Amino acid sequence: MQAIILLAGYGSRLARDDIPHKSLLPFGDDTLLSRHLRILQDLGLEKTVLVVGHNRDAVKDYVGGLDLTLPIEFVDNPDYLTTGNTLSLILGLRGREGDLLVMDGDVLYPREVLEKYVTNCKPPSFAIVPVDIDDTEATKVLLDDTGYIHSFVTKRDLTDEEKARYKCAGEALGFFLLTPELTRRLIALCDARPDDFLSTLWEIPFSEVAPGAQIQPFFIVTDGCMEIDTQEDYDQALSQHRENPEIY
Predict the structure, then answer these.
(1) Residue 18: burial class (beta carbons within 10 Å; 0-12, 13-18, 19+)
(2) Within a domain: residue 62?
(3) pTM, whole model, 2 decimals?
(4) Inter-axis angle of helices 85-93 and 180-192, to 10 degrees?
(5) Which of its termini does the chain have fewer beta carbons within 10 Å around, N or C?
(6) What is the pLDDT of residue 14?
(7) Which range marks the domain in which residue 37 is found?
(8) Mean pLDDT score across all residues of the chain
């Protein structure tokens, strides 16, 4: 299995000029990025692909200094400022074979969360954490009546119809496992309708390919998982890390 980490974004909401990229936010002796890579290395993944954009050279230099045995490949997204992360996803997926683990680069999580997900869950699937159903910003995952993922709703509230027809399983954490078939379908969709998807978040095209694809939810009940978008998020994540260093 190969992993793809999406790292192209600018991180404007974080507003940290003291570091070249938000994936380099420090947590103890590590950063978000070094944690991802060391855990993936320990899991024995074949390769990790880093999709880079903002300050790409600084990210590449940083990774080059980590003394990893995990093979690393870089894919550049030159249009990261004017597109959504769907483009980064598609660029990372092209030419890959076999099952794939895709990760957003701005998530802090206990080590065992990723380890259990990769070793215990079969693709296609999405890791899901609890969420307030009325959280407008959250990436809410809707399940159909068979228990498979039907769609994703982000940056808006659920409609009354959605609440009536589907179960809200929680929030997509930013880890998902793809089969070759689902990867091909996603690339074909975005290639056929680039104007509809390449400026969007990845949740939008996934909502079109999910129905009938039998994508499983993988429920994470362990505390300590956080997406870091703002300085407030980072402060909270850093506090969690300091209070419970043994789980990270």
Answers:
(1) exposed
(2) yes
(3) 0.96
(4) 130
(5) N
(6) 87
(7) 2-128+172-247
(8) 95
